[in-house]
Automatic annotation (TrEMBL):
Its cofactor is FAD. Residues 7-323 form the FAD/NAD(P)-binding domain. Belongs to the class-I pyridine nucleotide-disulfide oxidoreductase family. It comes from the Bacteria. Keywords: FAD, Flavoprotein, Oxidoreductase. It holds the Pfam family Pyr_redox_2. InterPro entries: FAD/NAD-bd_sf, FAD/NAD-binding_dom, FAD/NAD-linked_Rdtase_dimer_sf, Pyr_nuc-diS_OxRdtase, Pyr_nucl-diS_OxRdtase_dimer. One of its GO terms (molecular function) is oxidoreductase activity. Its EC number is 1.-.-.-. This is Dihydrolipoyl dehydrogenase family protein. It comes from Arthrobacter ramosus. The keyword Flavoprotein applies. Residues 350-455 form the Pyridine nucleotide-disulphide oxidoreductase dimerisation domain. It is an enzyme of class 1 (oxidoreductase).
Length: 466
């Protein structure tokens, strides 16, 4: 069958790919995007959006539980209704999915639902979801294939019907207790949510701290919050064997020799790229030994005319990072055609937030990474309870920390653990991008009483080391 030719063929409808596809289609280019199942990609269907919707419900529940503290009576016994919780989450997701579909169609691209597999350079055969096969070839091809939960090799795991972040979102009833294997982003967010809605949680984390990328003091503060909230945290130990008994309970035997038993288990030990079985190597696209697509700093793969973006291309696994890959691709496709200069992915400042309660907002270097990189650092650190707004909203928990370069007085990074930290971190990011002296942030006039006002305090001598 001779292929249908398009200017741009996007394989996998993730954040970078779908945004590029819509942009170029609106500009009058002939664009096709192939997506096997999730209209709008992972983030909207099974990751950021549904989890943050549920986390918000958990926060509402927690606020109602504390109603009396805020002077409100009559809300003594709030009840979490899983069915209604799921309903709201599904409503949010479905509305966004519908919006995506109409944007795809409205952009003028051809949106093809089916499974793509490469059969020749820049050419895919698509097994259509509603039957039939099409073959498409792009002058340029963008791979935006995403990742899926990684199931590690642990004795008994395949037979134990473990939960992943995908399946957990579909549960019809809540277990009384759960073991969460992995204390990274997924593990921490679900541990906090499930504990809030009444599940007894044990986190088993392989490394010596939760969120190993963070400074030990920040990770310890999160661990303390977890422990105070009733979550059991087991650090520095891994699962040797998993078994599910006939009555459904799961027992994890740890390498330490201990066992942990619960009604269910969530495996959250990282994600693997969806690059298997689509014949990428057959068309000259090299993968690394974990299956991630090798790209250069302009997101070009090892095959001529084939580009890659997002999680599967080794970009930090955040939706906003994939979105920036879209900008890089758009610039570089134009530059290749003689318009403007190409853009590199190196040196990008990519913030992120972990939506535990309180949440962690992060940007730039941690103290450890700054010291390892040879910086002479000054640390600013304070308790969130010093911020007036924290008192008015009744969220005193958390610490804020910033890392400053002693030689230039510039802010190198920050870890803000506390209410609204995912919002405030953007202000620190702007200061870093602008190369501001920390004193400029200290002396900026910031609205009172906001959490952001804490940035005035953080850099005062009371909280800044000499
Ligand atoms: C539980 C959870 C919570 C998260 N929360 C956040 C958060 O709060 N904030 C944040 O920034 N990030 C979060 N992330 C990470 C974020 O979801 C990812 O970084 C982001 O979705 C990556 O998107 P992407 O562009 O790489 O592609 P994806 O959105 O993963 O899209 C890839 C698409 O390709 C399709 N595909 C794959 N192979 C084929 C094929 N052969 N044929 C056709 N289609 C194919 C897939 O179906 C998929 O839709 C979270 C992740 C998880 C798991
Ligand atoms: N808020 C957000 O932005 C957000 C939320 C969720 C996920 N994500 C993205 O999704 C990605 C995947 O998240 P994740 O939590 O699955 O992975 P992760 O890499 O963040 O954490 C996995 C953790 O599991 C531990 N681990 C590995 N093997 C283990 C074992 N056998 N037993 C016990 N512990 C083990 C590791 O030490 C690690 O800390 C993240 O990298 C992140 O970028 C982002």
């Amino acid at each position: 069958m001779s292929p249908e030719d398009v200017d741009l063929l996007v394989v996998g409808g993730g954040k970078a790919g779908k945004t590029l596809a819509m942009d170029l289609a609106r500009a009058g280019r002939n664009v096709a995007m192939i997506e096997r199942s999730m209209i709008g990609g992972t983030c909207i269907n099974v990751a950021c959006i549904p989890t943050k919707t549920l986390i918000n419900s958990g926060r509402v529940l927690e606020t109602i539980r504390r109603a009396a503290e805020f002077g409100i009576s009559g809300a003594e016994d709030p009840l979490m209704e899983l069915k209604l919780l799921r309903h709201r989450k599904e409503d949010v997701v479905e509305t966004m999915v519908k919006g995506q579909l109409s944007s795809f169609v409205g952009s003028g691209m051809e949106f093809v639902l089916g499974e793509a597999k490469f059969v020749a350079p820049r050419t895919v055969e698509v097994t259509l979801n509603d039957g039939g096969v099409r073959t498409l070839r792009g002058t340029d091809v963008v791979l935006n294939l995403g990742t899926e939960p990684l199931l590690p090799t642990i004795e008994g795991l395949p037979e134990s019907k473990v939960q992943t972040s995908n399946t957990l979102l579909k549960l019809e009833s809540l277990p009384e207790s759960i073991i969460i294997l992995g204390g990274g982003y997924v593990g921490c967010e679900f541990a906090d949510l499930l504990n809030t809605i009444g599940v007894k949680v044990t986190v088993v984390q392989g490394s010596g701290q939760l969120l190993p990328r963070e400074d030990p003091d920040i990770a310890a503060a999160i661990e303390q919050n977890f422990t105070d909230a009733g979550i059991t945290v087991r650090l520095g130990t891994r699962a040797q064997r998993i078994s599910r008994a006939a009555n459904g309970t799961v027992t994890v035997t740890l390498f330490s020799g201990d066992t942990v038993t619960a009604d269910d288990i969530l495996v959250a030990v990282g994600r693997k790229p969806m690059t298997d079985g689509i014949n990428l190597e057959g068309i000259g696209v090299e993968l690394d030994h974990h299956g991630f697509i090798r790209v250069d700093d302009q997101l070009h793969t090892t095959a001529e005319g084939v580009w890659a973006a997002g999680d599967a291309a080794g970009t930090p696994q955040f939706t906003h990072a994939s979105y920036d890959d879209y900008r890089v691709l758009k610039t570089n496709l134009a530059a290749r055609n003689g318009a403007g200069k190409p853009r590199s992915t190196s040196g990008r400042l990519i913030p992120y937030s972990v939506f535990t309660t309180p949440e962690l907002g992060r940007v730039g270097l941690s103290e450890r990474h700054a010291r390892d990189a040879g910086y002479k650092v000054r640390i600013a650190k304070m308790s969130v309870s010093a911020i007036p707004r924290a008192r008015t909203v009744g969220h005193l928990e958390g610490i804020w920390k910033a890392v400053i370069d002693r030689e230039t007085n510039r802010i190198l990074g920050a870890a803000l653990l506390g209410a609204e930290a995912s919002e405030v971190i953007a202000a620190v990011q702007m200061a870093i991008l602008a190369g501001l002296d920390y004193a400029a942030v200290r002396d900026a006039v910031i609205t009172h009483p906001t959490m952001a006002e804490g940035l005035n305090l953080l850099f005062t001598p009371a909280f800044l080391e000499d």
